[in-house]
Design a protein that fits this description.
mainly alpha; 2 domains; 5 helices; rod-shaped
């Protein structure tokens, strides 16, 4: 039986009988598919990172807009009156406010 195995091994091409080639291929397969930091996980992590960076930029933009609106609201009396009328339905003494609810 051992002679049959040796005969089968000797029929393989020389590159497949090389121990360095076999160990290198085993290492490559381990790194590409089996390891925790394999190629597929790296692709997913890179995609997740780009999505998180887009969210970060969106929220930084929202923060700057909110800070600008806040500074405008605290410094301009006309803006304060507009905000109070729109959000708290405040009115002057000689006015009536009608609230229309859409269903």
């Amino acid at each position: 039986m051992w002679k049959k195995v040796q005969k089968g091994i000797s029929q393989l091409p020389p590159i497949l009988r090389n121990i360095y080639f076999l160990s290198g291929m085993a290492f490559l397969i381990l790194m590409l598919f089996i390891d925790d930091n394999n190629v597929i996980n790296q692709y997913h992590r890179r995609h997740e990172l780009s999505a998180l960076l887009e969210k970060k930029n969106f929220y930084l933009h929202q923060i700057s807009e909110t800070q600008k609106a806040s500074s405008e609201l605290s410094s301009n009396p006309e803006t304060q009156e507009k905000f109070a009328r729109e959000h708290y339905w405040m009115k002057r003494d000689n006015e009536d406010v009608f609230v229309i609810v859409k269903r």
